[in-house]
Structures are given as C-alpha cells and as structure tokens.
Amino acid sequence: MNDLLGLADLSAREITELLDLSQELAGILERPIKKVPTLRGTAVATLFFEPSTRTRTSFELAAKYLSADTVNLSPQGSSLEKGETLWDTARTVAAMGVDALVVRHRTAGVPERLAALLPVPVINAGDGAHEHPTQGLLDLLTVRQHFGRIAGLKVAVVGDLAHSRVARSDLWGFTALGAEVRLVGPRLFWPADWEELGVPVTEDLEAGIRGCQVVQVLRLQRERQAAGLIPDAQEYFARWGLTPQRLARLAPEAVVLHPGPMNRGVEIASPLADGPASLVARQVTNGVAVRMAVLYRLLGGRAR
C-alpha cells in the first residue's frame, strides 16, 4: 500500500491487517505517556479544504504519538489565497521534505490526483461525497471490538446517502469483511449509482433497520445539498431520525454509530446518542488508533 485513497481499493486481507495493527497500537493510548519513537524523524503535513475537528485533530495526535513532526496547512493564509494552484502548493510542501500528506477536499478525486503527482504517500481524509477511508476503518474496528467479528452482521447505513463519503467507505469496508449492508434514506438522497452498488436501498426506515446489529446514522449534509431538498428538519426527524424507542422496537440488540458531528434532533435523538447503545465515543478514540496504523504502514514504521 503506497497511499490510502479509499477502501474500495483494498482487499479484505489489507483491511484486516490495518484493523489488527490499529488494535495493537491502541494500547499506546492507554499509557501514562502516549509516545513511542516509531516515526521519529518523519514529518506529516495535513492540508484541509473543509472544516474538521475529529479527523484533523486525530491525524495530528496520531503522528505525535508516533513521534512524527506535523505541519497543518489551510487555504487561509497560504499562497492559495494569492492564486497558487493546489497542485503547486502540494508540490511545494513535498519539496520541503514532508514524508506524507493528509488531504481533505470538497471535490472527489483530489487525493487520487495528488497521489499521482507527488513522490510521497497521500492519505485521503475525505474527498467530496466519494470516500473517507479512515472513518470506514475506525467504524470497522469499533464494531469488531464490540462483536468480535464483522462477518455475518447486518449493518444499516441510514440518512443522507448521496452526499456522504462515510456511506461509501462503510459500504465497501463492511461488505469486504462479510457483513450484510443495507442503505436507508429518503429517495432524494439515494446515490445516483445506487443500482450498481449491489446492496438493498430503501426509503422504509423500519424495514431497513429491523434485525440489524449495527446502525450507522449519517449526518444531514446541508452544505452539499441543493437548496430546499429537506425543507423541514422536524419532518426529517419524524420519518428518518433514530430514537431509543425506534431502535428498541426494530433492532433491540443493535449498537449505534455516528461519524460526527451530530445534528441532535435531526438525524438522532440525544438520549440515543448518549445512551448505552451508542459507540460514538469509542469511534472517536479508535480514530486515533486507526490513523496511527495508517501512518505506521505508509511510513515504514518498525516496532520499538
């Protein structure tokens, strides 16, 4: 693996190896001093063109816990504001000697293009509505920790399917490891290529989550939607929002995931987000472990 651009590009074996490595490195987070010298002397640059709390911070922490140096770049205050192209900015950063570039961009395909241009590994931290591979990996790790397996589980991905990069990474990742995936959401928010995805897609929330062990609730991504697609958040919550009552009736054994940030009272009720079925906090912790594993793998880390 030279870059991490999407889970669709990885085999089941490669995904499993990354999960195993993530689990091993997760132990570092439980130490009083969260620091190992594994990537000492390397530098990781993050370039984010969209807002981020969890992904950006966890990549930076992952690098620091492995003793790599980090530099955070954003369009504001950079030469991009002076008209420099993204491609020239990325080449400039690579020429300064960084060892990996973590990129988030609103346009699908940007990380792949950068990977073709640059001599250093590129990690996709989310590109448009395409993929978010490290989110998919941390979701897999969280579910595997809870159930001890992925194969044979029924997984419902619920919400804004068309605009969510998480939906695609989860679809590819869970399917590759033997889970049965269902996509659930308003017809307006079905992916344009839904017939080619090879999994059931439904507007019926009750039918979609019934009997599932895992329910991934997606954020309603208004920033990517055409105006007026969802005119009333209360109506959306009434039809597709997940509540403790709905979960208990339709999937009483299920755990709930959410990639964040959560719109409480829109796609998920607060009592459910904070309740015993929620694995959201564990997802956040696992995000650091997964990103440590990806950096370790791409930068040639050796155990110490």
TrEMBL record:
Pfam families, per the entry: OTCace (PF00185), OTCace_N (PF02729)
Record key words, sorted: Pyrimidine biosynthesis, Transferase
One GO CC term, this protein: cytosol
Positions annotated to bind carbamoyl phosphate: R54, T55, R104, H132, Q135, G260, P261
InterPro entries: Asp/Orn_carbamoyltranf_P-bd (IPR006132), Asp/Orn_carbamoylTrfase (IPR006130), Asp/Orn_carbamoylTrfase_sf (IPR036901), Asp_carbamoyltransf (IPR002082), Asp_carbamoyltransf_Asp/Orn-bd (IPR006131)
EC number of this enzyme: 2.1.3.2
Reactions catalysed: carbamoyl phosphate + L-aspartate = N-carbamoyl-L-aspartate + phosphate + H(+)
Any GO MF annotation of the entry: aspartate carbamoyltransferase activity
Chain positions recorded as L-aspartate binding sites: K82, R165, R219
Enzyme class label: transferase
Ranges where the Aspartate/ornithine carbamoyltransferase carbamoyl-P binding domain occurs: 3-145
Domain Aspartate/ornithine carbamoyltransferase Asp/Orn-binding stretches: 152-297
Gene3D superfamilies: Aspartate/ornithine carbamoyltransferase
Pathway(s) the chain acts in: Pyrimidine metabolism; UMP biosynthesis via de novo pathway; (S)-dihydroorotate from bicarbonate: step 2/3
UniProt keyword Transferase, yes or no: yes
Gene Ontology process terms (BP): 'de novo' pyrimidine nucleobase biosynthetic process; 'de novo' UMP biosynthetic process; amino acid metabolic process
NCBIfam families to which the protein is assigned, alphabetical: asp_carb_tr, PRK00856.1
Function: Catalyzes the condensation of carbamoyl phosphate and aspartate to form carbamoyl aspartate and inorganic phosphate, the committed step in the de novo pyrimidine nucleotide biosynthesis pathway.
Family named by the database record: Belongs to the aspartate/ornithine carbamoyltransferase superfamily. ATCase family.
Oligomer and partners: Heterododecamer (2C3:3R2) of six catalytic PyrB chains organized as two trimers (C3), and six regulatory PyrI chains organized as three dimers (R2).
The protein's name in its UniProt record: Aspartate carbamoyltransferase
